[in-house]
């Protein structure tokens, strides 16, 4: 990296100027002679400082300052060098001059920049199971991009097609779930479940199993319920958490916690262009709206020496932040009536494009400022770059706050005034757009809270409840897996179907909460419910049981010539409440 990068920040704040004969020689001390030679830079005159032994000895100017323009304020070369070293390592003088020259040339672009690319890939786990493969089919029919997680590639491709977008992995084996392979996934339907089967064996296409546990003596086939339902859930959540996002967003800066590790702020002002503006980052111990600590961007801005901007910028993050699960950046600031900029970079190179958004503040008020990623403008040396790559939210390397005289492409900041300024900011976080929809839909089971429920007549309960211990505490670990989801911070929906059947969808349904109902429901119907939940704000944070109104003793069939109408599952979702799980009966507390 080179110190030319500092000039890129300056360029975000400087208007284009025509340069004539750009030969400027800077020195560490200055002569007091009045007959010095002058070079022309647009309408500005740069003195060419020369020295003799006597003039060096008699100079009264500090060796840390250089006269930038004839008759203007002196330039603090010491602060300039410190800025370069703080962000960029040893300076390269040639790069400095090249960047300064480039920043004053070129014209504004009238073309629109490239739009940010977005991804809405849905991951289906347990995709070769009865519910999972139906979810894949429904998503494909809706034209939604689907990726599946499966243990057996041959089985997955034979069942779902040779062109299926496939991840080979096993939730019980953490080393097969590298978070990098889940990049681009926005939502998950988890249909992974421990495998049950008849003790006496089954047909190759599992016909006995498909009749339901009610009709055979079951046993666990494969990994235990603890490995699949609990440890497997831990592994899956850890793998996809960064990709799908958190309801409350991801904190990038905040004095109550810092989820991205150490963030180091430093001043990056117009000193890199010969200016005299100066800023700093401070922590105010009692400056927040609640009386706690807050960050502070403060300084004094001046247009002397063709300057006019101040900023604070983070050092490059050790590991880039992946914010692809989110829709923008939210700042909590105390305004002063001025317009500021947030600049986000996606490259470790210094002298590179900054994706930029301006925001206005209200004087004396704490306010939340939301800046959608879609509103970011690619800017390089004060000009919009129409050929810049689209913003990549998965590879954020640094953040910058700026107060500048200039906007973009020669336009001016209408709120700019010279002098001191202060912008307290208590947090910077990535956010998900409202209304939030579920990012993780999980297929669990009715009955998960019943094995330990006091006063329950087990003889009237489904076989899985009666045989919970014999089946490796299957329902107990399913409940533990649910709790991991609820505690993860991911926007979720948990669907608890009653006994699953191979019957078609279409029967009337009963949605309930509190884990008390028994009955049956079609696997196809459960798949439809899961897909509908992905798009429903009313399904977020809800846990519910569901069954059809058809009794076990009656098969459900449909007339192909008169199929049932499609259901509006939103009607059911709206009636559900958050926080009801059935555990209330275990804890002897009201819902």
Which key terms come to mind for this protein?
seven-stranded antiparallel sheet; 591 residues; disordered N terminus; 26% strand; alpha+beta; NAD(P)-bd_dom; single chain; eight-stranded mixed sheet; Galactose-bd-like_sf
Topology (elements, then pairings):
Layout: H1 4-11, E1 37-41, E2 44-48, H2 53-58, E3 65-67, E4 74-76, H3 77-88, H4 93-103, E5 121-125, H5 132-141, E6 146-150, H6 153-160, E7 166-168, E8 185-190, E9 195-198, H7 207-211, E10 218-221, H8 225-244, E11 250-254, E12 265-267, E13 278-284, E14 294-301, E15 309-314, E16 328-334, E17 339-345, E18 354-360, E19 366-372, E20 377-380, E21 383-384, E22 398-404, E23 419-431, E24 440-443, H9 463-466, H10 474-488, E25 492-497, E26 499-501, E27 509-512, E28 520-522, H11 523-534, E29 542-548, H12 570-575, H13 583-587
Parallel strand pairs: 5-6, 5-8, 6-7, 8-24, 24-25, 25-29, 26-28
Antiparallel strand pairs: 1-2, 3-4, 9-10, 11-23, 12-15, 13-14, 14-23, 15-22, 16-19, 16-23, 17-18, 17-22, 18-20, 20-21, 27-29
Helix pairs in contact: 1-4, 5-11, 8-10
Describe the structure.
The chain has 13 helices and 29 strands. An eight-stranded mixed beta sheet has the order 7-6-5-8-24-25-29-27, sandwiched between helices. Strands 12-15-22-17-18-20-21 form a seven-stranded antiparallel beta sheet. It is an alpha+beta fold.
Characterize this entry briefly.
This protein is an alpha+beta fold and 591 residues long. The protein has 13 helices and 29 strands. Helix 8 runs parallel beside helix 10 (474-488).
């Amino acid at each position: 990296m080179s110190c030319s990068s500092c000039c890129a920040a300056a360029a975000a704040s400087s208007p284009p100027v025509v340069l004539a004969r750009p030969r400027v020689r800077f020195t560490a001390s200055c002569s007091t002679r009045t007959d010095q030679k002058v070079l022309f830079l647009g309408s500005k005159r740069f003195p060419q400082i020369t020295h003799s032994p006597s003039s060096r000895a008699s100079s009264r100017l500090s060796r840390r300052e250089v006269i930038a323009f004839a008759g203007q304020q002196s330039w603090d070369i010491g602060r300039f060098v410190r800025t370069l070293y703080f962000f960029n390592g040893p300076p390269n003088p040639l790069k400095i001059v090249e960047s300064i020259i480039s920043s004053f040339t070129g014209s504004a672009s009238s073309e629109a920049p490239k739009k940010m690319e977005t991804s809405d890939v849905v991951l289906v786990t347990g995709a070769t199971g009865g519910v999972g493969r139906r979810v894949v089919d429904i998503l494909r029919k809706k034209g939604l991009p689907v990726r599946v997680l499966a243990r057996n590639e041959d089985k997955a491709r034979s069942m779902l097609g040779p062109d299926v977008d496939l991840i080979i992995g096993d939730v019980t084996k953490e080393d097969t779930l590298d978070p990098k392979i889940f990049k681009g996934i926005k939502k998950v339907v988890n249909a992974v479940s421990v495998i049950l089967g008849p003790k006496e064996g089954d047909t190759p296409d599992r016909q006995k199993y498909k009749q339901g546990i009610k009709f055979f003596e079951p046993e666990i086939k494969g990994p235990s319920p603890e490995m699949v339902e609990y440890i497997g859930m831990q592994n899956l959540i850890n793998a996809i958490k960064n990709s799908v996002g958190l309801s409350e967003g991801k904190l990038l800066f905040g004095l109550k916690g810092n989820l991205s590790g150490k963030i180091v702020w430093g001043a990056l002002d117009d000193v890199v262009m010969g200016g005299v503006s100066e800023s700093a980052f401070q922590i105010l111990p009692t400056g927040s709206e609640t009386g706690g600590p807050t960050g502070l961007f403060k300084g004094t801005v001046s247009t002397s020496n063709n300057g006019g901007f101040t900023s604070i910028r983070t050092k490059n993050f050790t590991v880039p932040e992946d914010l692809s699960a989110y829709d923008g950046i939210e700042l909590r600031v105390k305004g002063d009536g001025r317009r500021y900029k947030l600049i986000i970079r996606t490259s470790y190179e210094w002298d590179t494009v900054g994706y930029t958004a301006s925001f206005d503040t209200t004087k004396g008020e704490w306010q939340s400022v939301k800046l959608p990623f879609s509103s970011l403008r690619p800017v390089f040396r004060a000009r919009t770059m129409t050929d810049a790559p689209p913003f990549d939210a998965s590879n954020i390397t640094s953040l910058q706050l700026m107060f500048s005289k200039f906007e973009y492409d020669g336009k001016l900041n209408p709120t700019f005034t010279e002098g001191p300024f202060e912008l307290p900011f208590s947090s910077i976080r990535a956010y998900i757009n409202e209304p939030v929809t579920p990012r993780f839909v999980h297929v669990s089971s009715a009955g998960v809270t019943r094995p330990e429920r006091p006063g329950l007549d087990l003889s009237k309960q489904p076989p899985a409840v009666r045989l919970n211990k014999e089946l490796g505490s299957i329902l107990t670990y399913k409940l533990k897996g649910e709790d991991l989801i609820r505690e993860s911070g991911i926007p979720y929906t948990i669907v608890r179907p009653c006994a699953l059947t191979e019957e078609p969808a279409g029967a009337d349904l009963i949605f309930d909460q509190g884990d008390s109902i028994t009955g049956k429901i079609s696997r196809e119907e459960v798949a439809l419910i899961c897909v509908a939940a992905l798009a429903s704000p009313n399904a977020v944070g809800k846990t519910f049981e569901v069954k059809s109104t058809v009794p076990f003793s009656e098969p459900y069939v449909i007339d192909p010539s008169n199929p049932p109408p499609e259901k509006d599952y939103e009607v059911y979702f709206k009636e559900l409440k958050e926080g009801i799980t059935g555990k209330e009966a275990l804890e002897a507390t009201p819902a």
